[in-house]
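Progress against Task 2.4 (sequence-to-structure conversion) is shown through the following example record, which the project officer requested during the mid-term review.
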Amino acid sequence: MAGESDKVEKNDILKRDIRYLKGVGPKKQGLFRRIGVRTVSDLLFLVPRRYEDRTKITPIKDVVPGKFATVQGTITLRGKRRLYGKDGFGIIVDDGTGWIEVVFFVKNMQKLFPIGAKIIISGKVEFDKYYHKSIFVHPDYSIIGKNIDDVIAGMVIPVYPQTEGLDSRFIRRLVYDLLKQDIKFTDYVPEVIRKRENLLSIQEAVKKMHFPDSVEEGEKARKAIAFYELFQFFWKLNLKRENIGKARPFKEKGRLSSEFIRRLPFKLTKGQQRVIEEIDKDLVRSVPMQRLLQGDVGSGKTVIAIYSMLRAVENGMQAALMAPTETLADQIFLVLLNFVSGLPLRLGLLKGSTKASERRGILKDLENGDIDILVGTHALLTENVDFHKLGLVVIDEQHKFGVLQRYDLWKKGDEFTPHLLLMTATPIPRSLALTLYGNLELSLLTEKPAGRGKIETVVKLERNRDKIYSWVFRRVEKGEKAYIVVPLIEGSDFSKERGIKDLYSMYEYLLKMKSDNVRIGLLHGRMKTEEKRRVMEGFRDGEFNVLLSTTVIEVGIDVKDATLMVIEHADRFGLAQLHQLRGRVGRGEKKSFCILVMSDKVSEEGRERLRALKKYNSGFDLAEIDLKMRGPGEFLGTKQHGFGGFRVFHFYKDQDIIEKVRRYVGLLKDGKIPLRENEREKLMSLKEKIEEEFYVA
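Structure tokens generated for the chain above:
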């Protein structure tokens, strides 16, 4: 029987799951998720990667290899074709000035290309070295006389982000059919601002972003939507800040925090000392601290977070630390246990997977004040998580939470507002941080602790795998330790077909190569917290000298004599994650090596990422590069849920509107822009509307 939620979804097409659209289903639903599309709303705000201007038709006799071209002609031949060592299907297209072959590597395509059909082909022209002629390989195409293809055949058409099994043609058809339904979008920008900025209405902007009359019109439409997104973001943030309240001022340093610093096995860097002083000045005030701590990998943010939480505990209050994943929460909890061992503290760990009986005990202890520091995931946000006296909130990898989620945890205090410390190991360029977190104080950690060895980064092709591990094992036999990172725990048919190594297949491979002096430990995210702790401590203490792991080692116990890091299929990881993994080595005085193993068929984008990682050791340099390459959403790993709720706004492309939008929001807040009654009601409704058409916090 359909539930109430099903009725809501059917009545609101924008919130409908993408799989219920005609032609999608469960299989393509999974493919859409890879490009950040879960709902109809996500699809309609999916920004085209580029546009193809099909209003300009090139005669076939004039096409040039290496150049993009659009040709129009008639299908005269079709049949099987073998190219690049693969079986495929080919057609011949003739336009009267000449003919060209078009090759596809997809089965059962013959019925799509009837002899005599009129067709438009768009794509990069390639050169067949064997036959010495120009060809198209897997281009975009439109058969004239078939629904949408008739309409867009000679238009400027969108080319979307693609993934294997999901191409632009299919996405285009879905978007086109949806836009014919005349879906209504809520417009929150007051008309006076819209007219002053000459913005398209949100309705018109969505249509024109997908099917513009020119490339310039498509960009104008995207820019208008970016304005709407940014406006809604800043207005919601403004509403959330209205009633911050007062915090309990902390007293000067007490025994717990002083003892913690005294017991550290290393000396704090000048940067750490400076940030601690900044935090101490914030904590003694009744104005709630709102500080963003940015630090490169290995710069010592964890020590500062623990110090800050101990300051709360020694003042008779509780502290909470929230991480974006269960794996990260587990790792932070283990690190915390290691650092505060011997201090009189009561710690708790709360995750979505925590057993009901254990959860009840934690919640009772928390409410009674019998837990001093609680580490957890989004589970901390649930309604029945009540603190006795919450004095400090720490949010790690803060960019992976929506802004409004961060505020939800912050408001878990009683009549007093807790102090707030946000942290990120993905350095956000200062310009971006100031733009989106202008209400926060910024602390930067750029200095690495003394005695850290140099890390040399090298890139190798997977065909050299045997040589790589022979070299690694020789060094391990001489007393060094190595991390080996793979992207998967277990392989699927998809990954096995593509030769992607998973934890267990890699383990079998390494067992055949290693000597008796090489001892391999296994670590992955499905292990229980205690199991992870045992393996990590076993690696640190020498029980294992090779740790084969998934990316759960992004955060972990420092192993000073771990000098080798091998990352399998490195081209499949983002720059920030690669830099984070590389930071696991180089923590002792010896020189360390990070070996990036990439596919023999690596994409140019993947190759560019690895070149950047080899060239730069600074996370701040890499952050700038990553932001330029991918934009804020992908750069911060939050594309699926938007960056701060953004799916269209792009930091580099839209810097010119940021201050403009912030100024308008300020003027509205101060009553300096006249509003109609219905506009005022719409804006105030955002207090309750946490999730909107293109805002997913």
